[in-house]
Amino acid sequence: MAAQTEGVPADHGPPDWRAAGERIDTLIDASASGGAVARERTEELVRLVADLYGAGLERVLDIVHDLGHLDDVVLDALAKDDLVASLLLVHGLHPYDVVTRVEQALDSVRPYLGSHGGDVELLEVTEDDSGEVVVRLRLLGSCDGCPSSSVTLKLAVEGAIEAAAPEITTIEVETATEDTAGPVIPVESLRARLGSAAGPQTAGGSSWQPIPELDGLPSGGVTRVLAGSVPIVACRIGADLFAFRDRCARCEQSMGGAVLARRLGGATGDAVLRCPSCAAHYDVRRAGVCLDAEGLHLAPLPLLADGVTVSVAVPFPVAV
Description:
- The chain is about 35% helix and about 20% strand.
- It is α+β, with helices and mostly antiparallel strands.
């Protein structure tokens, strides 16, 4: 057994880079206690270090390419590694173009869509003269007996694309039952669909439950509330609000007390929820897919904000 060098801690395996990303964000936030100048200098330091390592990463790729070893097998391996791929994205070095990454993102959520009786078709990816990148998609199928499926599936698809191709500015989604006039489902129409399916005799229907306190949830905030009698966990990323059933898919414990943080190397607006019991990480924008265990995900719930209050669709009628 190799002797441990005095003063050097034993190697306990590779570092948790997701936890490292959360720690970096925590330290940046803590620097604000020293005032605006301290925070600005901290952010500048992080940018300079990131730029330095980005330049080094680009140099490594150039050297490997010049030696003739940067073939398709190596590029594919780099793109499939979550940490490496995220760093390549941050520094504009990802080996695959935006269309390929969008297609791969859609492939990654197809098993989840299939479990809800749905699928997705990529119609086109366009870029205008101003540099705006637009993705047009069509959702196919629906979740049998789940009238809120189109909202849930859009959440999964859009989240996967935003994580894989952060340079995309607009995602336009249409469903097979919609006309081509636009991808937006009117609020009243969606409420009517859910209301008709959530009658008192429909045990498997859905019901909209108003939760006014979610309207004041700040960006980065996480809260556990009741939607009728159903416990949910909600969080906000910027202007976007997300809700999930309050149950960790890995340890089956409550997500109350979960922490919201950005992944290391993730784009702005990219965030994960960490279970307070088992530390499982869930990608919020990808409909709560688990980043630590394949095939697991939180149960996302559709939300509607009509300018008056925020409502959440719970998957069965709630007694009033």
